[in-house]
Amino acid sequence: MVPAPERDPNGMPIVYEEYNLDRDILLEALTDVSDYIHSHNKHITIVAIGGAVNVMMLKSRKFTHDIDFFIADSTNEDAEMLRDAAKQATLRTKVKLGGNWLNNSVALMIPRALRAELVLEAIEQNDVLHRGYGLTVIAAPWKYALCMKLNRIAAHKDKLHDPKDAARYFREHIIREGLNQVTVKTIQEWATYYTTQAPVEAIRKMDISYYTVFMEHGVLLEHD
């Protein structure tokens, strides 16, 4: 959890082993987290971004290694509660989750003011991955999720699934907005607003995946 990663006796950050987590495993683990928080008479809403959204909602991937999330401006009490609940889930589930299966390290990349705005957008979007008495998990705004993937592609740090993930997020956005295509300029304006990078090459790479999956182009290129 941000801001204080767990450390070993020598003061070094602990590197946790990762495991393939499917939808059923994640739902079971989140239920345990929710029950733990509820037992302490609290409720917390978190915004998930990345692979967990693809596994749990879009069902475009079978596995992920963790749930990346952020919240608007957590108190130390909330952070400790989530950390303790996540640890409890690792003890209760029948399979190994990994010590970092539920983490908000992504929050380090999001300015606080923007984070608060994204949470409000996610609540309005209302794509629920999990809802329990103590915990609600909602998907990050699709435009933002897209821009984060494009930023990774632009930095040449993308994995094989990243362009496909970006295409899925893009599809969700344009369908909900009743659009057929979006211009490169518009996508780059989104990226500028979110302080991410979206060069034409990254957008083209995403659109190639978009065409492969949906048999049509979602991006309106300048020459079109």
Strand percentage: 5-15%
Number of strands: 7
* Strand order within the widest beta sheet: 3-2-1-5-4
Structural class: alpha/beta
Which outline best applies?
Answer: globular
Defining traits:
five-stranded mixed sheet, 11% strand, 7 strands, 8 helices, globular, alpha/beta, two-stranded parallel ribbon, single chain, 224 residues
Provide structural commentary.
The chain is built from eight helices and seven strands, in the order αβαβαβαββααβααβ. The strands form two sheets. A five-stranded mixed sheet has the order 3-2-1-5-4, with helices on both faces. A two-stranded parallel sheet has the order 6-7. The longest helix is centred in the N-terminal third of the chain and has 17 residues. α5 packs antiparallel against α6 and α5 packs across α8. It is an alpha/beta fold and 224 residues long. It starts with 22 loop residues before the first helix and ends with a strand. The mean pLDDT is 92. It is globular.
Write the layout of secondary structure elements.
Blueprint: H1 23-39, E1 44-49, H2 51-58, E2 67-70, H3 76-92, E3 102-103, H4 112-125, E4 128-131, E5 135-139, H5 142-154, H6 162-176, E6 182-183, H7 184-193, H8 200-214, E7 219-220
Parallel strand pairs: 1-5, 2-3, 6-7
Antiparallel strand pairs: 1-2, 4-5
